[in-house]
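Notes from hallway chat w/ T.B., transcribed later so I don't forget. T.B. wanted the structure written out for a chain they're using in a teaching module, and asked if we could keep both sequence and structure tokens in one place. Agreed to drop them here.
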Amino acid sequence: MTPTKIRERLRESRDSVNPAEYVSALEYVRDDGRER
């Protein structure tokens, strides 16, 4: 999913998703994948 598409989905979700927490989770998954 592209960053633009992620931003669109976050806007659609209104307040049900905390964008900062979502980005933190994406970074965690990305970094975890790089360690393998």
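Follow-up for T.B.: The two ends are 21 Å apart (CA to CA). Might be a good example for the class.
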